[in-house]
Automatic annotation (TrEMBL):
Residues 11-40 are annotated as: Disordered. SUPFAM superfamilies: NagB/RpiA/CoA transferase-like. This is Lactate utilization protein C. Residues 43-210 form the LUD domain. PANTHER family: LACTATE UTILIZATION PROTEIN C.
């Protein structure tokens, strides 16, 4: 019996049983990663996987260096306007020369489309997958639209937010709210596998990683 026949046999068995029973799903998968949350090893692994996904990582030793890193990233990109969630720490933007537009009241999509970049924080980052997660209810991350419409996303990730595995990340998140998982710049491929970036989100992603050197 091949896989197709096995699936069809299970469907027939479920039909014959009236759909009243279902098998127990084993939940014995690994729930912790190879590295402790916030550890140097977890941070190094995150840097590696983010880079694999074509994000650019800027490592800074503490939050006092965040503003200069963001200002440098925006200047290098030629950004003249940037949108920020209403609760983003003001000191993160202290050295930014671009015009900062707080998303309060919420900017229209057409206005967001004219903004060069967005700066946010992150709820958690997953080292094994090169992913960070935005919680729309968090004051430093803002609503989903601001991280999807502008063409350039600058995200600040603190070391204590870095975990190794997806189960560890999910344990820190509230599934009842809107969550956005970001793994590298937005990209897709056509039938000939030609990569196209910026189709359904920012085409450029910079991560300012706050972790002791």
């Amino acid at each position: 019996m091949d896989a197709r026949d096995e699936v069809l046999a299970r469907l027939r068995a479920a039909r014959d049983a009236g759909g009243s029973t279902s098998p127990d799903v084993p939940r014995d998968y690994r729930r912790t990663g190879a590295h402790p949350p916030g550890s140097a090893a977890a941070v190094e692994r995150l840097t590696e996987t983010l880079t694999d996904y074509r994000a650019t990582v800027h490592r800074v030793p503490d939050e006092d260096a965040v503003s200069a890193a963001i200002a440098r990233v925006l200047e290098d990109a030629g950004a003249t306007t940037v949108v920020a969630p209403p609760g983003l720490p003001a000191r993160w933007l202290a050295e930014v020369t671009a015009r900062v537009r707080p998303d309060e009241p919420p900017l229209a999509v057409a206005e967001l489309d004219r903004v060069d970049a967005v700066v946010t924080g992150a709820a958690v980052a997953i080292a094994d997958t090169g992913t960070f997660v935005l919680d729309a209810r968090a004051v430093d991350q803002g609503r989903r639209a601001i991280s999807l419409v502008p063409d350039h996303h600058v995200c600040v990730v603190r070391a204590e937010a870095v975990v190794s595995s997806v189960p560890e990340a999910l344990a820190r998140l509230d599934p009842d709210g809107p969550l956005t998982f970001v793994s590298g710049p937005s990209a897709t491929s056509d039938i000939e596998l030609d990569r196209v970036e910026g189709v359904h989100g920012p085409r450029r992603l910079d991560v300012v990683l706050v972790a002791p050197m």
